[in-house]
Amino acid sequence: MVLVGVAVGGALALVAVLIPWLPPADSTQAHKIDDLYWFVTIICVVIFALVASVAVYSIWKFRAPPDDFDDGSPIHGHTGLEVVWTAVPAVLVTAISIYSGVVLTQIEDVPAQHRIVQVSAQQFAWSFTYPEAKVTSGQLTLPVNQPVELTMTAKDVIHSFWVPQWRMKKDVVPGIETNLIITPNKTGVFTVMCTELCGLGHAAMRARAVVMSQEDFQSWLDQQKKAAAAGGSAQGKTLFTQQCGTCHTLADAGTKGEVGPDLDKVLAGKTADFIHESIVNPNAEIAAGYKANVMPGNFAELLSDQQLTSLVDYLTKTAGKG
C-alpha cells in the first residue's frame, strides 16, 4: 500500500511540477497567491495519493474469489479511523483558512505611498483615469515596481477586472467603488479581461495594460497631457481609442473591434451631423447585421461638448481613409 501511495503521489507531483499550469507571475501579489495555490495543491496531492493507495490496496487485498457470491461480512466500524479522518481534514482546512487569511491581508494592504488609477467599466470597454494628471486613456499604463490602487466603478452592469499574469481579480459593480492593489514587477504588455458575463460583447471586452519604467511612464503621461490639451483630431483619436476602439474597427486608430460595425465602411463619406447622431443616439439607425441596444446611449452625458466635437471631427476626417 505504501508503494502504491508513493507511486500515485509521485506521478501527481510530476504532473503538477512539469506542466506549466499557471501564466508567469508578474506582480508582487501574484507570487503570494501562487504560494497559497501550491500549498493547497500539495495537500490535495497527498490526500488523493493516500485515498487512492488505500482504494487500490483494498481492491487487490480483499477481492472476492470468482465463485464467491456471498454477501460481505457485516462490520460495525472503526472508531480510531473515524477520529483520524475527521480530525485530519479539520486540521488541514484550518491551516488553509489561516494561510489564506494571511495572504489576503498581505495582498490587500494599501501602502502609504502609492499611485491611484480610476477604472471605469461599461459595455464593452475599459477606461483608465489618472486623477493627478487629469488624463483618461483606454490603455492602462503603469510604472514597474510601484504599487497602484485601482478604484473601480461600473456604469451599467457587473464587470470583473482581471490580468492573468497579475492574478488579482475583482468585480466592478454599479453603484459602489471596489479597490484592487497591484504592484507589477515586470515590464511588458498584458491584457485586461472582463471575467463577468456582461452582455453580447463580453468576449471582446479587452484592454491593453502596459508596464514600463518610471521614466517611460512619465514621458507617456506627458504625451497624454499634450494630446488632451491640443483638442481637435488629436484628442478625438485618443477618445476614440479609449471609448470606442474595443467595439469598432478603424484603420487610422489601429483598432479591430468586432462588437460593432467597421467604421471605415459604415462612416465613409458620412457627414459630421450623421456621425454626431450615431454617437449620441446609436439606435437611430442600425447597421445591417447588428442589433439595437448594444452600444451605450449615454455618450452625450459622458463626454463634454468639446470632447464630442473633437471625436466627431476625428471620425469625419479619418473614417474610410485608412
- Along the chain, the helix and strand elements come as HHHEEEEEEEEEEHHEEHHHH
Number of domains as seen in the coordinates: 3
Can you tell me the residue ranges where pLDDT is under 50 for at least 5 consecutive residues? none
Note the main sheet: 5 strands, mixed
- Into which percent range does the helicity of residues fall? 40-55%
Give the arrangement of secondary structure elements.
Elements: H1 2-18, H2 28-61, H3 79-107, E1 115-122, E2 125-130, E3 135-137, E4 140-143, E5 148-154, E6 159-162, E7 169-172, E8 178-182, E9 188-194, E10 206-212, H4 214-230, H5 232-243, E11 249-250, E12 255-256, H6 263-266, H7 272-280, H8 299-302, H9 305-318
Parallel strand pairs: 1-5, 4-10
Antiparallel strand pairs: 1-2, 2-3, 5-8, 6-7, 6-9, 9-10, 11-12
